Amino acid sequence: MKNKTIKSILASTLALVMVMAVFAGYIGAEPVLTAPVTLTFSTQDVGGAMFVYASALAGIWTPILPAASRIDVITTSPGGVGAPVIIEMGDADITLGNAAPARWASESGILGHPPTQNVRAIAGGLGTDFINVLFTQAFVDRTGITTVEELVEQQHPVRVVLTLPGSFGELAAYHVLDVLGVDYDTIRSWGGTVEQLSWDGIVSMLRDDRADITIGHVGAGQPATTELTMTANMFFPQLAQSTLDGLVEAGFAPIEIAAGTWGGQDTAIQSAGSQQVILVSAALPDDLVYVLTRSIITPEGRAELMSAHAALAAFDPARAHDPLLLGAPIHPGAEAAYRAMGYIE
């Protein structure tokens, strides 16, 4: 145990020395890139939020790189859950993921892959997504149950409908249940059901009273949930603080769902979420990552991001290095940029 402690201290000290060495090189002068750079930025399909975010970032970065540099935005990302794997396998230099899956990938592996070694983060907190729990009002009226914690305590045979296997919404639901000590088989043992469908199917099941609750991970204005809450009478439960604390321990970050986010939601709800994070290969040079990071954490860079998508208005450069918002270890070049801006002392 003593040897492990010494090794841990030495490793932490070495990491700090390396970061300070990078930072020291930038005191008094910003790094200057001279050689053209070609980067591959993997994102999801055209039209989705990820593609919009990636295009905005590429638009900010390309002009500040040396002449003849190129950022190729390609639609090969499997989404927020599998994004770290893209970087780990060397299929892209940059991608967008979600902070919690990035953490899980780093700590224990994800989607059957071993823990990532080559994935680093440069900025988190892009977006305003959150864990969203909905009960039908009919379910509440029949049972008197108004919270997920009551549901678990009473072991009620509830009809649950979730997004498809492997989606981040489904993983978020899994973690809510896991914090409460139950899983899908537990619910079935009570006489309940768990079905996994597309969003169209989820809306239909809840609206037609063929399901009682859903748990997902969405952003304000998500079309399916907006439609559901405008066309069906829904109830908005508040997760207990102990449940929220457990979700934060699992890698989610606290977030508030503002009153009026959904039709019929009159009060704010405290939740937890996992926002978009910019993930890069650990092999990218420190000076390059410094320049990329610095360009989006200045007031001017943030303003450019805000103009690209309303959800990016939540991006806070002063907090973008928070481990809960990064998930993966921070790239040394990015850390140096935050220090240069005074966001890390």
Low-confidence stretches: 1-28
Count every helix, treating DSSP H or I runs of 4 or more residues as helices: 15
Report helical residue fraction: 40-55%
Radius of gyration over all CA atoms, rounded: 22 Å
Mean pLDDT across the residues is 90
Give the CATH superfamily of the largest domain. Periplasmic binding protein-like II
Order of helices and strands: HEHEHEHEEHHEHHEHEHEHEEEHHHH
How many strands?
12
**What is the C-level CATH assignment of the largest domain?**
Alpha Beta
Strand order of the largest sheet: 2-1-3-12-4
Shape: elongated
Terminal-residue CA separation:
31 Å
The fraction of residues in strands falls at 15-25%
Indicate the structural class: alpha/beta
Description:
It is a single chain. Strand 1 (38-42), helix 2 (49-61) and strand 2 (70-74) form a beta-alpha-beta unit. Helix 1 (2-24) crosses helix 15 (332-341) and helix 2 (49-61) packs antiparallel against helix 13 (299-308). This protein has a five-stranded mixed sheet with strand order 2-1-3-12-4. The protein folds into two domains: 2-127 and 275-341, D-Maltodextrin-Binding Protein, domain 2 (3-Layer(aba) Sandwich), CATH 3.40.190; 129-273, 3-Layer(aba) Sandwich (D-Maltodextrin-Binding Protein, domain 2). It is elongated and about 70 Å long. It has 15 helices and twelve strands. The protein is an alpha/beta fold and 345 residues long.
